[in-house]
Write a structure and sequence with these properties.
This protein has about 575 residues and is of the alpha/beta class. About 45% of the residues lie in helices and about 15% in strands.
């Protein structure tokens, strides 16, 4: 099955445990034990020194019966810790237990690594079950949440946060951020995708592979099935799959198709991807730079956005795997080589690449001189493109809602009387097609944002609303009669308060002012300030307060609205 549905044999259920990170699996098991009335322990690595198999923040949970979820080491630490917990050899409040402090202890416990770790041990009770349920709910919704513990009293608190933060431990307080499993979306089914899928699965990424070519997906699936990996395969156009499967801050997109029809999303919708994904990686070369007006890709290029740890990587020729590093550490990776030997090799490759680029440019110039251009074919191509856009505009006017999910290659091709493949030739993605249709609709409406002025804003809005009446879609949906009754009561109340404050206004003028207040009542306005303008709650409320003060001042002291 394609068209947005995973069809591999390894992972079928989207709610399966494979979607959860290792830490989330531990917390789910902890919740199940609490729900059964047990009093389990949660153990967290809070510090490591020297060699340690598991990093800071790793979790292990166990119950009084000795059942375990997660791990802290290779098994040597777990055995001793579980024995101590079952023997009640620990304080009732959260405490830190040290391992590997001496050579004698290492020999007694059989710790071969020689390092030492600090483990925070907490025993949970049924009273803390609602808090844990909230934590797991946030993780299931792919958002981060921070849990803090007062080490003196054992009191816990939780707070949603935007991104991961380092674990902190002081003499009195412990804080750790839990987050969802990272998605790794590989665009382009090929041998590189097969290698990356195997590596990423071992690093606890949720691997998703997409390609608009069903035969390529089927071929890759047969190869991956033999490796017994957890992965998901999704068919469809890359930009649509990115929007549905990798559109949150905990997703990484790697385009591997080396086909402009597949990878073109990386340039046309770069802004969209950077707004959602944590990282977006693509292989390229300096040869492809002139095609996309992109900076030279002779070395790894890292582009940063202020306040958002997002970066873009471009690799020459050989593609290297990026380790799972915090975004703040990525700026240290100024080249793909970390040793003098590799640096020398990279320099030699760059020189050879430069020569190859010069030869390629020379060949391109000679080819351009011999290129045959047919004016008739150019006119036909322009007419076909116009026919596609016109058909898309006609469909947009007929849609019953503003949801354009039905504006597809197939629908536009049928309306234009051409094949779906022909539409694909002119617009490599459906998002590119929608963008062209929106641009044409903007031209038809007569709106020119570059020429917009404050004095002409009223006429612009009037023209926009008049143009929107030509669409079948309407802004308001049908409401239950109960809500209609409440709306009428609100409108009457607004007319009453305006009429009381306005002196000498006509009934129509009072209604105009009341209608303006009613527009500010709509929740969509507040949501637009929060989502579209990225205002926080205080700033959004301040904006509404400013508007209300202007209207109040006008009603009480200013001239009434002019009726034209």
């Amino acid at each position: 099955m394609l068209n947005g549905t995973p069809w591999n044999t390894r992972v079928r259920d989207h709610d399966a445990i494979a979607m959860h990170s290792l830490d989330h699996q531990v917390l789910i098991q902890l919740q199940q034990w609490l729900a059964r009335g047990q009093r389990p322990w949660l153990c967290s690595i809070v510090a490591t020194h020297g060699s340690s198999p598991r990093p800071v923040g790793s979790l292990m949970a166990c119950n009084p019966a000795g059942e375990v979820a997660g791990s802290l080491s290779g098994g040597c630490v777990e055995d001793d810790l579980i024995a101590r917990l079952q023997a009640a050899d620990h304080p009732a409040l959260p405490c830190v237990i040290e391992y590997g402090l001496s050579a004698e202890e290492n020999a007694r416990l059989g710790l071969p690594c020689g390092g030492h770790i600090s483990v925070l041990v907490e025993q949970w009770s049924e009273q803390q079950l609602p808090l844990l349920q909230t934590v797991n709910a946030h993780l299931s919704q792919r958002s981060c949440i921070e849990r803090s513990v007062d080490l003196g009293s054992g009191a816990m608190s939780i707070e949603p946060v935007a991104r991961f933060r380092p674990l902190t431990l002081t003499e009195t307080r412990f804080s750790q951020v839990y987050g969802p499993r990272f998605n790794l979306l590989l665009v382009g089914a090929g041998q590189i995708a097969q290698c990356l899928a195997a590596m990423a699965a071992m690093m606890d990424y949720r691997v998703i592979i997409t390609d608009p070519r069903p035969d390529k997906l089927e071929e890759l699936t047969q190869q991956l099935d033999g490796e017994r990996l957890e992965y998901e395969v999704v068919g469809g156009m890359p930009d649509d799959v990115v929007t549905e499967w990798a559109s949150d801050p905990f997703s990484i997109v790697i385009t591997l198709g080396h086909d402009p029809r597949i990878d073109d999303v990386r340039f046309r919708h770069l802004a969209l991807l950077l707004r959602h994904c944590s990282y977006w990686i693509y292989p390229g070369s300096s040869i492809s730079r002139p095609l996309y007006h992109h900076p030279p890709l002779s070395n790894i290029v890292v582009q940063w956005r202020p306040a958002i740890p997002t970066c873009v990587f471009a690799f020459p020729r050989l593609f290297g795997m990026i380790p799972r590093l915090p975004a703040g550490d990525l700026h240290h990776m100024s080249s793909r080589s970390s040793t003098p030997k590799r640096a020398a090799s990279a320099s030699a490759n760059n020189n050879s690449d430069s020569k190859a680029d010069d030869a390629s440019k020379s060949a391109d110039k000679s080819r351009k001189k011999r290129r045959y251009r047919s004016v008739v074919r150019q006119q036909q191509s322009h007419q076909t493109r116009e026919q596609i856009i016109t058909s898309g505009v006609e469909l947009a006017h007929e849609f019953p809602s503003w949801d354009w999910k039905n504006l597809t290659f197939r629908a536009v091709g049928e309306r234009a009387g051409i094949s779906e493949r022909t539409v694909y030739r002119y617009f490599p993605t459906e998002q590119a097609l929608k963008s062209a249709v929106i641009h044409r609709l903007t031209e038809e409406s007569g709106i020119n944002l570059n020429a917009l002025t404050l004095n002409g804003y009223a006429n612009t809005i009037k023209g926009l609303f008049l143009y929107m009446q030509s669409f079948a879609a309407k802004a308001d949906e049908e409401k239950d009669p109960t809500f209609s009754g409440l709306d009428e009561e609100r409108r009457q109340a607004l007319v009453r308060i305006v009429a009381y404050a306005a002196d000498g206004w006509s009934e129509t003028q009072v209604q105009l002012a009341a209608a303006t207040l009613d527009m500010l009542w709509q929740p969509q306005l507040f949501e637009r300030l929060l989502n579209e303008w990225q205002f926080d709650t205080e700033k959004a409320l301040g904006t509404l307060d400013w508007l209300l003060k202007l209207i109040k001042t006008t009603v009480e002291n200013g001239p009434p609205p002019e009726i034209t």
